Amino acid sequence: MTQLTKRIIATAAIVLAASAVQAEQKTTVPPGKADAAIKAAFPNPPEQFVARLSQDETMKQCSASHNNPGAAVAAEIQKREQARIEYPADGQYLGDWKKGEALAQSGYGLRFTDYPPRSANGGNCYACHQLSKQEVSYGTLGPSLYQYGKLRDFAPEEAKKAYEKVYNSHAALPCSNMPRFGANKVLTIDQIKDAVALLMSPDSPVNKD
Amino acid sequence: MRLRPLSLVLSLCSLLSVNALLPGSAWAQDAETEKAIERYRQMLKEDPWSNPGLLDADRGEALWKTPRGPKNVSLEQCDLGKGPGEVKGAFAELPRYFKDADRVMDVETRVLWCMEKLQGFNAADLIKRPHPGGGQPVKELGAIATYIAHESTGEKFAAKLDQPKEKEMVALGEDLFNRRSGPMDFACATCHAADGLRIRLQGLPHLSQPKEARKVVGEWPAYRASTTQVMTMQHRLYDCYWQMRMPELELGSDVSIALIAYLTKVAQGGEINAPGLKR
Question: Catalytic annotation on B240?
Fold first, then answer.
């Protein structure tokens, strides 16, 4: 071994040791500390807000993994959230796209200034998604849904899949950033059908050029 | 969104292009608005006295120096970390651990502490309705914080955050930044953990990365054109939690301080330019 090689190895060993020390020194948050801090930071919440201070198992797993769960946890989340989906009693997935457009525009509901409720909750779809071509004020946190139904040949099984995604996004994509609109009672089953109609109805502006 | 009519419209509209009125050009218009605001920021740098937020910094300075409260003393003996009465550069080293309070504090929590301990105000009263409604001027505590922040303008964030309690706060802040909660499952990270994203047309800074955090964190407290008021960092976080469908975040809570400590840590080395200007 040459002198240079030895020096390189020695340096590498020091760097490795140093980074190991650094990794050890990374301050970790003891279990329960964040929960306690949250409870203390929102004192005397109104009744409807009490449960919001705690996380369910899916939230905990997604938070801990920064929304990138390992395969086993992802499968667990998917199974659990799939089981929470309630389907329309009449087996119909398409409601009224006009109502769907209205709820896609509305971000109303569940904020502390929204009580007592003055109207139905919105889905605020445009905050994150492109939908109809006419609405140019759309966000990019989620994928574009422009021509959603047309691109899927308006297939009935795609309407069901869309319903499931809106009702509980984690059933399709564990730790999705999208709210679980149905499972968390943000939207009603009828409202979700209206949102699905906005995506899947051939008459919907989403599917027009 | 809770937008108020812009009182700044008169000063801004001469800078805006008229394509705002053409259908289909809202995105382009938004880019134009952002450009116009950038030019307005440049003008503010050239003529700092045109920043409406400075009126509140001035008000804060007067409040700092005036004997007030049940004990009728000024805040000039308040220790912001560099010794009693040292304001210049103090904000650049906050949040920090304060031995007297045995707690890590951001600027607003420290002012609250001094108003209670030195002036004899009742802290519970001060945090009851700590933030102004839309269009109302920032409250006294926020004006004082604006003054203190402005006294570090041009300096770089240099909070050491190396004491054990400070490190714990930063770690808690990172944890909370990623914590999903409420009926929408939102976390700070839902909107602020990637580059180049928008909510509607509003650009979202990537706050878990130094590049963008350094640009924006030092602009708070900021004058918000949409609500015609100075909004402090505590108020900004309160508003985020409102949008996340959580209850009212208490001013001075560990959650608020931890998030500010985390954001400040990520923004370390970024320039302070407070009060900044936001749309």
Answer: yes
Strand (E) or helix (H) holding B11: helix B9-13
Are A179 and B183 in contact (CB < 8 Å)?
A: yes
**Paired tokens of B167:** 């490190």
Token pair for residue A164? 């499931």
- Predicted complex ipTM: 0.88
Contact B120, B70 (CB under 8 A): yes
B190:A141 CB<8 A = yes
Tell me the per-residue pLDDT of A152-196, one tens digit each, with 9 for 90 and over.
999 999 999 999 999 999 999 999 999 999 999 999 999 999 999
Measured in angstroms, the CA of B184 and the nearest CA of chain A are apart by 5
Return the DSSP state at B7: T
DSSP characters over A76-103: HHHHHHHTTPPPPTT------HHHHHHH
Instruction: Please report how many Cα atoms fall inside a 13 Å half-sphere around the Cα of residue A134, on the Cβ side.
Output: 7
Q: Residue A28's closest chain B neighbor by CA? A: B171
Provide the 3-class DSSP secondary structure of residue B59: helix
Tell me how close the Cα of A107 comes to any Cα of chain B, in angstroms: 8
Q: What is the pLDDT of residues B141-153, one digit of tens each?
A: 999 999 999 999 9
Residues in Cβ contact with B211 at an 8 Å cutoff, skipping those fewer than 6 apart: none
